[in-house]
Design brief:
about 450 residues, alpha/beta, five-stranded mixed beta sheet, four-stranded parallel beta sheet, globular
Amino acid sequence: MAPEPADAAEECSKKQKNDDTQSTSVDALSSNDGSEEKNEFDTLANAKVLLSDCLACDSCMTLEEGARVFQQNQKEFFRILNLNKKCDTSKHKVLAVSLCPQSLPYFAAKFNLSVNEAAKRLCGFLKSLGVHYVFDTTIAADFSILESQREFVQRYQRRNQEEHALPMFASACPGWIRYAERVLTNLVTSHICTAKSPQQIMGSLVKGYFARQQNLSPDKIFHVVVAPCYDKKLEALREDFYTALYNSPEVDCVLTSGEIVQIMEQKNVSMKDVTEVAVDTLFDDLKEGDVVRHDGKRSDGYLEHIFKHAAKELFGMDVKEITYKALKNKDFQEVTLEKDGETVLRFAAAYGFRNIQNMVLKLKKGKFLYHFVEVLACPGGCLNGKGQAQTEDGKPDRALLAQMEEMYTAIPVRLPETNLHVQRMYQDWLEGMDSKKVQDTLHTTYSAVSQSTSSLDIKW
């Protein structure tokens, strides 16, 4: 009989070594069994993933998951590129790459470009390798934020009838989700917003909407996401983000921003020398314009968008600017809404595992004051993901990060409600905002799961 999971303090060593710089290197498990013929990309080094870069601890990862996550590297990407060069067209794949907006300031700062230049040159580089389509995941974040806003208002209105309606925790960070499901209990997971993350909604858009528009079977598309952190690789493996009918995951491979730079270095390519190519959209031949972002200064801005939406919907108040109040540290900040001398909304941003653990402890003690918390596993938010802006010894490159934050803040904000493509897709593809298809496509569920007995034997 399998042993029962230990409590969080024993099972999750991240609780003792959160946000430190210790790195345990693990060799990648290569998908090349030795029988594959030589090709022009054999000079690529085997990818290595630092388990301290990935915020899911070893006791949270099964042996099978470990093998699969380590196969999400440059060689898998080039395996598809080489497959497309062979004569057997029945095995060819349409290669689509989706770029997270928090990755673009990294390329811009590193190569001394504007964010718009970085997006177009990155698109040009990827297409020079043989990628067919390059997308921006901002449209997926639009859907995720809109669904999160609606869910918060509904939870708030049910708060007196349902014990676990509030607080609501954001669901966009896979490191936080992994920690909550594998270490914490349903006391916590029942509070997590059910809206999918932008990465996985982008998977639904590419393998669902775009595939239908192009008259393609989802399994004929190989979908790669370029993201700031390693935890996105684990997120792509979730069973609920998989189309069983076509034996096809919504996201086939995740590469970090740093892994893309490694490819450039190994091919002796500089972004300065790459031709600019406009980023594609999901809509026929229409191309993306200038890069836009959401309201958050270091993330996709769930707190700010949900706060302003809730203030308007629940209390009829138009909030133009949000004032953050730093509490214990700069990564734990509070936002409140006052009406008639009463605090009617209390939101928080909790970044990094120290703040997450303090937040969970207060929840378990029944001393939780917040209605919503934007939870991100990385201190400093998504721009500080460990797949980018790191020095050679694995520490944050603070000078580069400061430059990235300045660049990201300067990107124009576009409200998700103003995206006409999103509004049309709700009607034409999703069959209305309250349809079953919206629930099936844009939402999932989170619950505590028992620890596997076959976890990787790697200690933090």
